[in-house]
Amino acid sequence: MSKNLTSRAEDYSKWYNELVVKADLAENSAVRGCMVIKPYGYAIWEKMQAELDRMFKETGHQNAYFPLFVPKSLFEAEEKNAEGFAKECAVVTHYRLQNDPDNEGKLRVDPEAKLEEELVVRPTSEAIIWNTYKGWIQSYRDLPILINQWANVVRWEMRTRLFLRTAEFLWQEGHTAHATKKEALVEAELMNNVYADFAENFMAIPVIKGVKTESERFAGALETYCIEALMQDGKALQAGTSHFLGQNFAKAFDVKFTNNEGKLDYVWATSWGVSTRLMGALIMTHSDDKGLVLPPNLAPSQVVIVPIYKTNEQLEIITEKANSIIADLKVKGVSCKFDSRTTHRPGAKFAQHELQGVPLRIAIGPKDLENGTIELARRDTLTKEIVNMPDLISKIDSLLKTIQEELFTKALNFRDAHITEVDDFETFKKVLVTKTGFISAHWDGTTETELKIKELTKATIRCIPSDAKNEEGKCVFTGDSSSRRVLFAKAY
Amino acid sequence: MSKNLTSRAEDYSKWYNELVVKADLAENSAVRGCMVIKPYGYAIWEKMQAELDRMFKETGHQNAYFPLFVPKSLFEAEEKNAEGFAKECAVVTHYRLQNDPDNEGKLRVDPEAKLEEELVVRPTSEAIIWNTYKGWIQSYRDLPILINQWANVVRWEMRTRLFLRTAEFLWQEGHTAHATKKEALVEAELMNNVYADFAENFMAIPVIKGVKTESERFAGALETYCIEALMQDGKALQAGTSHFLGQNFAKAFDVKFTNNEGKLDYVWATSWGVSTRLMGALIMTHSDDKGLVLPPNLAPSQVVIVPIYKTNEQLEIITEKANSIIADLKVKGVSCKFDSRTTHRPGAKFAQHELQGVPLRIAIGPKDLENGTIELARRDTLTKEIVNMPDLISKIDSLLKTIQEELFTKALNFRDAHITEVDDFETFKKVLVTKTGFISAHWDGTTETELKIKELTKATIRCIPSDAKNEEGKCVFTGDSSSRRVLFAKAY
């Protein structure tokens, strides 16, 4: 199977699309732009969900669920947000189908079942949630509200790609309400830090923390914190965002509270989210021409055992050994699968597990049992070693930690090697084509310049890094003065 | 707070509605028929999800995710299913809004962004899933497919009630594909047994297993297995269903496979689901006039500690003790919350935890610390006892098990006391009004009789119980011969 995968060098985009399908992660569906997330892909997403959910709860958040639909009148209440999403929203206009008199056996929309008010399928839930919060908040005692929702959302994108940009996607959206501006700002930054921690320490994806420029902000936000990752083709990918919404939604939905001085004020808001897009980031950060490479934290099975046998008697002895290994690994918290399928030969199994990125593979044959050794293969480095049976469990345990760390280091080195400081526009354009990656350059701070650069190069400002030093300089495009560098890149 | 709750005797329906809102489980939203599931309610749902998910995986199922939308042409492919859901489905017809020229600041549907084919918001996913399975199944080697999906679905119900019947609800839907009829039947029955096990042993809700009559079956099913519970007002509630779909969907979507004899055949199917409706069943099975009563398995916090103090010094000592209790309980796997809010008095806290059904409540005051005793209050029986400090942890641990068991037994006794064998129609009508509950009666097996009885009494056949004995008798309505009793009831 894996030999059919297009190489990254040949066609990166094709490599990605093929990998997603061949590794059984997802596929396109009969609905334009909507994907089917297959069991193997969904199992990885579930691991992300579990860890994020744990982190959210640890930071004091609770889950809840709000309606899929947003009545048009609520949708349009916060102007900027409405403007931002109006062009790409699915709209429910009717609530019934009926037999089509002109087409036997077919159905049509029942013209008499037209909704009085159209319903927008949520592209994001600020509107419906802030309309709800209005009923929950009277006094500072009701604050803060720290809620997260796991949900599907719909944005009618015209050009879609599996995981990276789909009409429907799965995500979590946090929506918090606070008594003070400061508290909301702290929350927005805290959640961006949670995302960075998750990306780096769980997904092994190095990210740069920063804030968006005005033109790249979430529609309706006053500040958008973000984490930006770099893919192997040198394009950036926004992996998560956390928004300080100010009092915009509170004003749009008239959500006031009595503060501890007895005065009425509008509530301060944040929202933050990551989505199944992270699956795309995962794939494009670690995988290779042989297929998926999974950090052990995200692998549905961290180890797979493939039996090599000719007789049923041999299989029986191998099975016994495999079960004992699985039990020992379970104690260590390591998941291990025994691939005992009789419908596939060992070679085909090896290829499949390589394609699907199982971090460690064990092959056990009669000879291994005789010698008291086992062959252990690492997916990330494609290396093999012979391990003495008694050392196996501790070897696997430590190797999984090593793999997790080394994948991060490898991605970090790649990312750091692809940040180029540039001070003139000719070099800027050249680096974008030859070296790709992030360009660290001075910018005059105007949206006009930003858009002009985008028009000329397709590169956008990915973020103003949080750790950017004050440094006097001149805008790479206009030559106007600037006090710190920002990061440009072409992006997904 | 609790004194404001309408009593069950006064108005059962009002009691239910008030309880759902006052206990902070859910509330109505701005979208007709759609609810907001609040954090406390959602935390209970998460506990159900976690346990069901574990049971599904233990029986070999994997999770996946399929699109929210079903193109009209797929929706109508399986005739009976289409007919069953056409009258209550939300339909997306457009994919964009634009500024309304007649109404400044308002949006309207962009008439130029009309979809070529309407999209139905899934009321259930057989159509989109079987259209997908077509691409996954060629040979018997690809079978069985055992997939579950956690998702939201929409059915445009005209009369809605929180949790029991809402336009959008959350559920899981299993969709499996098999090589033989027998295997599919075994699967459908297995999953009904999983539901029964879950309802009884986790939710403490006794259920009757059986199959539906033809007129009560899922649209498109050949057999619908179900579990039926009895609520405290004597009405039945269908708590879960598992459908044997035969080859209906395989035929509608042309899903054939080569069997192990090399012959082409249509694939056999099942589907099965439970939903947030279970929250309604939970509430109506165990709760009382003081509020929610939660089985310990489903309680977000199984124990709550309320400090009784006058000075900060007292609070400090109590807090120390509380933290030590929480740590000790955690070791036992018991969740315990310390309600240290300074904004509420102990009395108000007691009332809230009673209303929200926390199984055990501990009050700690300075006197208790002096005496080395603690007051432990049971929510279900509303009884209190004084426990010696050293016995507290083991006492709580065993008491939670006792509560779980006793809630089940209590509900079982109530249910069994409300199954009445009836042999004539006058008694049938009378029992429905006076005693309520299930009526076990002979039925002639015709849909005509079933519908006539429904018309006259509003009672439907809830199920033909799996354990019904062969017993010669006469139909309670027509007097025609019958060979076993079925269960009638008014139902939610």
TrEMBL record, chains A, B:
Residues 27-295 form the Aminoacyl-transfer RNA synthetases class-II family profile domain. It comes from the Bacteria. It is an enzyme of class 6 (ligase). Pfam families: HGTP_anticodon, ProRS-C_1, tRNA-synt_2b. Catalyzes the attachment of proline to tRNA(Pro) in a two-step reaction: proline is first activated by ATP to form Pro-AMP and then transferred to the acceptor end of tRNA(Pro). Belongs to the class-II aminoacyl-tRNA synthetase family. ProS type 3 subfamily. Homodimer. Consists of three domains: the N-terminal catalytic domain, the anticodon-binding domain and the C-terminal extension. This is Proline--tRNA ligase. The gene is proS.
